[in-house]
Amino acid sequence: MKVTALGVYSAFATGEYQENGLYKPKWQSNFLIEFNAKGKVRDSVYRFVLDFGTDIRHSLMGCGLKLADIDGWYCSHPHADHIGGMEGIALSTIFNPFWNSVKVEWLKNEDGEMDTVNDRLFDSRHIPNEAKPSLWGHKSVLDELWMAAAPGLRTIQGVQSVSLSTYFDVHPMKSNENYIFQDGDKTWEVDTVLSTHVLAGTALMPSYGLRFRSSQGHNILFPTDTLWMMPPNMVGFYKRAQVIYQDCETGPKSGVHSHIDDIRMVDPAIKKKCYLYHYSTEPKVEEGEFLGVLKQGETHEY
After folding, report:
1. Are 28 and 81 contacting, i.e. CB atoms less than 8 angstroms apart?
2. pLDDT, position 125
3. Structural domains of the chain, ranges and CATH numbers in brackets
4. pLDDT score, position 69
């Protein structure tokens, strides 16, 4: 499994102009995860993106990839820096007749020529799942994702009943259930991990992180956005993980992310397993205090 930090910055971080006048962007936080397995787009790799904010197409291009290169998408919670790219992903993929070989075959008519996607949708109203990217997420998150995206995604000419499954091969995930991803000679078990992100009035807004456990003993934790780094319900996940990708707020405390000042107070053994990301400005840390501070484009292989 190869992990690439497509972006490492907070939701509202802005880039900077360098002395040469070029603009250096600060992409929102999301990860590209690649498995050595047959994908929907390529035979040699399955590409999976964890969260897809408004600038996802730009951060992907920074790694030489396009939206059309991604086999599967995962959404942890419905904030703009995690779902803002949804409409672009869905529309650009559904109207790409060459997204994969299955879609090309589906569009061929009896004369061997290709119909347009609109024409075929008008007739059949269904694209085969094999011809669509996968969309993963906890069921409750996918329901809210559709509510947020529906106004733009319902507008397909001639099709009345439109849902997420019109655009994606949808995989609603359940708590306490494992999902399998093949990776060469490894098998990864993936499950959702519930963390609290926002206290909204009297309600809690969760963010569903992911835990990856391999057949060879790896345990990689992505808590995603956390109000508290290690609340009692998550202590066991942090202790058992070998590597933790931890959101890290810098600057004034917002009350919705784990702040660097609080993270510094955690057990040193836990801190040494943490890669810090989702910061507005790069945190200043002591050498060896953490596993590292993530940079855009940084990759790790497990």
Report:
1. yes
2. 65
3. 2-301 (3.60.15.10)
4. 98
pTM of the model: 0.95
Of the candidates 38, 97, 48, 102, the residue with the CA atom closest to the CA atom of residue 70 = 48
C-alpha 34/C-alpha 4 separation (Å) is: 8
Buried b (16+ CB within 10 A) or exposed e, 141-169: bbebbbebbeeebeebeeeeebebebbbb
pLDDT, mean of residues 262-279? 96
Confidence of residue 121 (pLDDT cuts 50, 70, 90): confident
Rounded to 5°, the CA angle 145-258-35 comes to 55
Instruction: Map tokens 């995860």 to a residue.
Output: 33
